[in-house]
């Protein structure tokens, strides 16, 4: 008899990220997806996928230059993300502008993500893993949980933003899975080539308000080492790692952590 894990893998196999053609990346701050999955984003765009970014906060909580006020920093971080997105091939940027490291509702973020799902009709959501052990940034926790809940609930027409035009469009749609980066429990590795990797770091380097040269180099060393270790899992030079779960496994499935 098949084990429970084997049965789940047969019943609801996760899609390959490479096969997804419309991807919505929801990030807590400008730069998070570039750092956590930038090479995968570059690869998806190169393969013809349509990639959208939705950024939850305004990114105004911190900068290398203490003289920047929050309004100026918000504008600068938008410009940096726009520049990075062009390098990676991102189709569109959307902004929610909740206060970075501030007081805002996970519930409201969930509704905003549901609206974006209904409008963009992605087949994959990509976001931070809020269940990574010791993850302590509240924006990452709110974002990851809100996106997972939105993935689960977006198809219920009674759950929405009180926006009749959008909510009337709620219907069965092609969203099949969510992929978490910065995860402690990866189950899928995306092979990235030298050009994908180069574009990732060119994009990350755009976030100059956050990263001085020493920090950028330490990030590059850490993520390159990790990518090479992940690459060994699939027999390539480098790979980025994700926890990919079909939407059907986001509720009442105790074994999801082990898949």
Automatic annotation (TrEMBL):
The protein, known as: PIG-L deacetylase family protein
SUPFAM superfamilies noted in UniProt: LmbE-like
TM segment ranges: none
Superkingdom: Bacteria
């Amino acid at each position: 008899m098949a084990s429970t894990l084997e049965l789940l893998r047969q019943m609801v196999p996760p899609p390959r990220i490479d096969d997804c053609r419309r991807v919505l990346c929801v990030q807590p701050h400008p730069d998070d997806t570039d750092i956590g999955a930038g090479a995968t984003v570059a690869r998806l765009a190169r393969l013809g996928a349509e990639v959208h970014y939705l950024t939850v906060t305004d990114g105004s909580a911190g900068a290398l230059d203490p003289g920047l006020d929050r309004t100026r920093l918000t504008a600068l971080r938008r410009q940096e993300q726009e520049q990075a997105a062009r390098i990676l091939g991102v189709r569109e940027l959307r902004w929610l502008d909740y206060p970075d490291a501030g007081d805002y509702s996970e519930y409201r973020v969930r509704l905003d993500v549901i609206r974006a799902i209904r409008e963009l009709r992605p087949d994959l959501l990509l976001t931070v893993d809020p269940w990574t052990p010791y993850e302590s940034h509240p924006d990452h926790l709110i974002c990851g949980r809100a996106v997972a809940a939105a993935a689960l609930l977006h198809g219920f027409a009674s759950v929405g933003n009180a926006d009749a035009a959008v909510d009337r469009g709620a219907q069965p749609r092609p969203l099949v899975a969510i992929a978490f980066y910065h995860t402690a429990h990866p189950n899928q590795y995306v092979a990235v080539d030298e050009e994908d990797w180069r574009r990732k770091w060119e994009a990350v380097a755009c976030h100059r308000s956050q990263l001085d040269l020493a920090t950028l180099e330490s990030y590059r060393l850490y993520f390159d080492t990790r990518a090479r270790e992940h690459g060994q899992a699939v027999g390539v030079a480098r790979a980025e790692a994700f926890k990919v779960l079909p939407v059907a496994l986001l509720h009442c499935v105790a074994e999801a952590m082990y898949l």
